[in-house]
Amino acid sequence: MDLTFKLYPILNSQGEFTLELSTVIENTRISASVPTGTSVGTKEAVSFSVVQSIDAIKRYNLLNILKNKLTELPTPREFDEILINLDPSPNKQGIGGNVTLLFSVFYAKVYSFMMRIPLYKLLTEVYYPPLFNTRLGETVLLFNLVNGGRHGNSRLFFQEFKIGFLGKKTLMEQIQLAVLLNKRFKRLLKENNKSYGIGLEGGYIFEATDEEVLELLQRGAEGLGLQPLSDYAIFLDVAASEHVHTEDPQNYTYYIPAKEKIVDVNGLIDWYTELAKKFPIVGFEDPFAENDNLGWEKFKTAPRPRQYIITGDDLTATNPTIIKESAQAKYINNVIIKPNQIGTLKETFQAIHIANNEHITITISHRSRETNDTFLSHIVAACNPTYAKLGNIVRGERTEKYNELIRIERELI
């Protein structure tokens, strides 16, 4: 089979150029494109510009390697190993993590088509079987209803205000509740004379303090007859590295914009506790800067009104080694999995495998600069994570991923 590949720039969700790779097999077009982040940790794989990416693709002869391997047809996992061995530099500095992921996802999609097997089933079978089994219904979707920090209103300390619907609802039931909550939330904003826009991940942007946002979220959910902590809960992405005021290993301090206040680690923990007593908050993602070991250490034993889901993102960067270290240090009991942080599907599933071995749960996550590619939905279906966050149900690049989950769920019923 003589395959012809096309590599060209397309727009991502922020109106910036990224690359798409495509081919046509049996009159069927197969394509792949991958996201990048806005709030980017220092430990994750580098992401190149379009010009840098094309240069790396030429320098490493990736299109010819891809063509040759699709003739030989090794498994996607074996193809990923070729990509990994090509660039042994830290954080994919030679090829670029966005480039390696683009080729990793594209190869898996083509292989899936040629084997006549859905992508989510292929991922289940190829990457660390029998650890995974393909099913849906146990995953809690985290809907990013309000965007703060670098994703929206920069006066908000928290970057993502997420709602999760509890009680083992189907994905469709969760999405239906998200639709109702969005409608009610917009009415609340209007009633409170809040002009709003839409942030990077589909959440609403409006002038408010962090406490005011939490109050509106609570009113919106309970207005639908949902009970806190049994029917719904609030999950916060702090992205604390974005608010570091003093970067001192012995005394990190953080700036809270809406309060115009600088606090140390103890003050930050006290504020989290105060909010969790007042609102049904169960999750804190990156509650401290990635290198604030003192903050992470103190948070482990700090008094709290309930058990928290403490999630590593910038801290762990989908890196299997760092995930293991952070889990064993008891800093986290949940970890964010973002494929572009590590660079290939093989390494992504390796990180999931390590998290499972360390008995911590996972959250499959999108990025702020997304494309309409739905490969992330297939990863969710392949590994049945405890949580998945794909943004709000607003903006096409987010809704397309939810729609793909709906399609997969219907196949699996």
Task: Write a structural description.
The chain is 41% helix and 19% strand. The protein is globular. The protein has helices at 50-59, 62-72, 76-86, 97-115, 119-126, 171-191, 210-222, 265-278, 293-301, 320-328, 339-342, 345-357, 375-383, 396-412; strands at 6-11, 17-25, 28-33, 140-147, 160-165, 197-198, 204-205, 232-237, 244-246, 253-256, 261-264, 281-285, 309-312, 334-337, 361-365, 387-389. By secondary structure, the protein is α/β, with parallel strands linked by helices. The longest helix is centred in the middle third of the chain and has 21 residues, at 171-191. It has 2 domains: 6-117, Enolase-like, N-terminal domain (Enolase-like, domain 1, 2-Layer Sandwich), CATH 3.30.390; 140-412, Alpha-Beta Barrel (TIM Barrel). It contains 14 helices and 16 strands. The mean pLDDT is 94.
